[in-house]
Design brief:
322 residues; Rossmann fold; 3-stranded mixed beta sheet; 14 strands; 36% helix
């Protein structure tokens, strides 16, 4: 039998490259990435095993030839930063909404039967029910990033019900692990490498309380969710079964990299423990729906953070010619 064709947008990025590693043994994997945030090095293992990398900006050109004859498209390409930077809102709208529309339209014209979308826990906003189930309402994101991902979910639902594609949405907790180029774990490790005695932390002690999930659990969760779904549009939460505060996270990272007596310098943030405007104070996802497929997260939030810190510290201390 012919091997299935799998296309991964953002395939040289953090989550995309791990999915490529997981699938390259059983599928012809095509990774699309403009290589501004993603790195070819992230795909080294998958490329050696036969994957293909196509350098392409999803906001430009005709995407249909790439998606032609694809059995499934994993759409991970996005602006991943919850915090807005000096460029304002336009990059988030373009890269998370416009690019998603262009991918969906190309998939429709290429008659791709399945699409997998990486969404986020931030679509729930400040949920009043924690752990938060997939059917929680109303969905009121408090960040432009969360709003852009919710818009992407709505587009997937519309295309699934209108054009017959089967769509899968995975709302992810804070994903950590090797190859991550941003986020609180990488940020803290980078700061500690520069100054092992003092750690600046956005917000006020003890900070927000959130769930962290290791990228390996995300990959297995996405595969399990697809096996367990039957309708045109399916939504799954993916996370760990607990949450930790920013202080506990900082303690775990300091311990993992062998530091004691680090001074924590809290900035005050945006109030209520938030590090910035749009930061959710409390987040933990209900996992019952995905667990019914037989999947379970193998790591707690602290275990995921410790392993991610170890990977980040090792990466930052590699010799330049390694």
């Amino acid at each position: 039998m012919a091997r299935p064709k799998v296309v991964i947008t953002g395939g040289a990025g953090f989550i995309g490259s791990h999915v490529a590693d997981a699938l390259v043994g059983e599928a012809d994997v095509v990774a699309i990435d403009h290589l501004k945030a993603g790195k070819r090095a992230n795909l080294a293992k998958a490329l050696k095993a036969g994957a293909t990398l196509v350098k392409r900006d999803l906001l430009r050109g005709d995407l249909r030839p790439i998606f032609r004859r694809a059995d499934v498209v994993y759409h991970f390409a996005a602006n991943p930063d919850v915090r807005l930077d000096r460029r304002g809102t336009k990059p988030t709208i373009d890269e998370n909404i416009v690019a998603t529309y262009r991918v969906l339209e190309a998939c429709r014209l290429a008659e791709v039967p399945r699409i997998v979308f990486a969404s986020t826990s931030t679509v729930y906003g400040e949920a009043k029910v924690v752990p938060t189930p997939e059917d929680y309402s109303p969905l009121e994101p408090i960040s432009v990033y969360g709003a852009s991902k919710l818009a992407g979910e709505a587009l997937l639902s519309a295309y699934a019900h209108t054009f017959g594609v089967q769509a899968f949405v995975f709302r992810l907790a804070n994903v950590v692990g090797g190859r991550s180029g941003h986020g609180v774990v990488v940020d803290f490790v980078r700061k500690l490498v520069r100054n092992p005695k003092r750690l600046e932390i956005l917000g006020s002690d003890p900070g927000t309380a959130k769930s962290y999930v290791h990228v390996d659990d995300v990959v297995t969760g996405m595969l399990a969710g697809q096996r367990g779904a039957s309708g045109p549009f399916s939504v799954y939460n993916v996370g760990s079964e607990d949450a930790i505060t920013v202080r506990a996270l900082a303690d775990a990272i300091c311990a993992e990299v062998g530091l004691r007596g680090v001074e924590y310098a809290w900035t005050g943030g945006a109030g209520g423990g938030r590090g910035w405007a749009g930061d959710v104070r409390t987040m933990q996802l209900a996992l019952d729906r995905l667990k019914r497929t037989g999947w379970r997260p193998r790591k707690s939030s602290e275990e995921a953070v410790r392993l991610a810190a170890r990977d980040a510290f090792s990466s930052m201390n590699k010799p330049r010619d390694a």
